[in-house]
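Input record (one chain):
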Amino acid sequence: MRTRDKPAEVAARADFSIIRYAQCWEDADTLLEALDIQPGDACFSVGSGGENSLSMLARAPSDVVAVDISPAQVACIEVKAAGFRALSHGELLELVGIRESTRREALYAKVRGLLSPEARRYWDGHADVLAQGLVSAGRFENYFRLYRRWVLRFVHGRRELDGLFAPRAPDERRRYYREVWNNWRWQALMRLFSSRFMLARHARDPSFFRYVEGGVSAPIFERIERALTELDPSRNAYVQWVAYGRFGDVLPHAWRPGNFEAIRANVHRLRTEVASVESYLARASERSIDRFNLSDIFEYVSEAGSEEVFDAIARCGRPGGRAAYWNMQVPRRRPERLAHRLKALEALGARLHRETATMFYSAFHVDEIVAERP
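The corresponding structure, as predicted from the sequence alone:
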């Protein structure tokens, strides 16, 4: 775990000593199709919970550098990566909390020696987090625990909830939602629980809304409605976690049995660093990075700060590479003045956003790095 001291813009306003995201809530299948990672590519990734950085390893890049301003988030990435190195697939799912386990302490002992001194100190001091199941331990995940307790239980019973996740044809899904699920309690409680006040108090941080204009709950309600009708909830790992607090047989990319060996074979190519995206990219060499997973960092950055990041990508990105990023409440994209260096793949981004299992975001953008003309 390498550490840099220069803070991100948002670091002065929010506490990053806690685990905010115990898992990634952006669809790795969408990310991998967008980035089109080729063997030998040099990759940059916003760390968050770590799953998407790990998924990128399945494509055999030369390296993936996972960067996060939070030491707690980097510790999450490290212990998951160590699990890929030292455990079987089943043991790994137990360690991180996807499967039930009574032996997480013993499993942690198997991976402890593979951690950096900083990550080892973190987990030695947070054994309770691993014991309860890491992927449930973040602030964002706790918000969904409250959601299950205070929204779902007052909307419908278990039979109706299970019915929402029954495999159905699209017309039948829409009919079930319209005639069974979408009652006044669902509408009222969802709008309350997805309000700016509730999200700031229980899910994110008040400072994360600094650049948000307009209402918050109505757009989120619309996206969730779409995830329950136009997409298939029975095949959506993220929606299932929100509803049940578990994935069941439907897993995100990094945790699927078929991807385990590919990630394990390349996990030695993962590097982690405690740093801001801005500071890391500012010191990266010219034309040194092929693929950029930027998560939704522009939600938390001013327009001027966003332009600095895009400038850095245009400078340190290799021609033919790609950058992918999500918008949630703050509409950000590469500035028009960089159109000659960063070509917006608008059709690709729009299609992937329509198809993605992720339900929280308003837009998905993919930019291709173009060689500067002489």
